[in-house]
Amino acid sequence: SQQGEEDPQALSIQEGENATMNCSYKTSINNLQWYRQNSGRGLVHLILIRSNEREKHSGRLRVTLDTSKKSSSLLITASRAADTASYFCATAPLPGTSYGKLTFGQGTILTVHP
Amino acid sequence: NAGVTQTPKFQVLKTGQSMTLQCAQDMNHEYMSWYRQDPGMGLRLIHYSVGAGITDQGEVPNGYNVSRSTTEDFPLRLLSAAPSQTSVYFCASSRRLAGGQETQYFGPGTRLLVL
């Protein structure tokens, strides 16, 4: 079963606008990560937030994590046409359990119109 | 570094045929994983490995075998292909970082069509 549920499934915005994607998960986690996938390509890691962190920034990316609600959000500010891609959240199990075992959400398809 | 490489890029099989999807990484990562991606389903874990000689099942292992004889290679075998195995297959590798964190590096994927 899918650990992460992402919302919205698709998002269409104009260049310069902000894009917000949400992810909810079911079980306790070690960390939560966001990945990007351009059409027909492999996934690329964007940012990781640990379970004891509430907010993290990387360039135009801002990630928040609320472990009490088991949810996370990814904000892309001042979006560009090149940000058009699918975005996935992925959760990592607690330490002591197996590595290499991320659980991915279903993804949000972001389209940024020039 | 080439990172994670996968071959072939595209394959067409007939029902019942077998084949091996190749995956190799040159980053000396301990962990390797195989995922399949279907429309609207995100990525689902098939099998994973925490080191040479050690593999385990993921969420959807049926119909697939893996082995890890070296750190670099992690092939995925389809024993008897079925149309339900039509998908895009991604291999990933990762290394344990401080605090138990890891991020995965993905290959470009193999598109498999089973007729």
Report on the structure:
The complex is a heterodimer of chains A (about 110) and B (about 120). Chain A has about 110 residues and is an all-beta fold. Helices cover about 0% and strands about 55% of the residues of chain A. Chain A is built from no helices and eleven strands. Chain A has strands at about 5, 10-15, 20-25, 30-35, 45-50, 55-60, 60-65, 70-75, 85-90, 105, 110-114. Chain A is globular and about 40 Å long. In chain B, a hairpin with a 3-residue loop joins strand 4 (about 30-40) and strand 5. The chains are: A mainly beta (about 110), B mainly beta (about 120). Chains A and B meet through strand 4, strand 5, strand 9 and strand 10 of A and strand 4, strand 5, strand 9 and strand 10 of B.
Annotation keywords:
heterodimer, A: mainly beta, 6-stranded mixed sheet, 5-stranded antiparallel sheet, 0% helix, B: mainly beta, 7-stranded mixed sheet, 4-stranded antiparallel sheet, 11 strands
Please give the structural blueprint.
The complex is a heterodimer of chains A (114) and B (115).
Chain A: E1 5-7, E2 10-14, E3 19-24, E4 31-37, E5 43-50, E6 55-58, E7 61-66, E8 71-76, E9 85-92, E10 103-104, E11 108-113
Parallel strand pairs in A: 2-11
Antiparallel strand pairs in A: 1-3, 3-8, 4-5, 4-9, 6-7, 7-8, 9-10, 9-11
Chain B: E1 4-7, E2 10-13, E3 19-25, E4 31-38, E5 42-51, E6 54-57, E7 64-66, E8 76-78, E9 87-94, E10 105-106, E11 110-114
Parallel strand pairs in B: 2-11
Antiparallel strand pairs in B: 1-3, 3-8, 4-5, 4-9, 5-6, 7-8, 9-10, 9-11
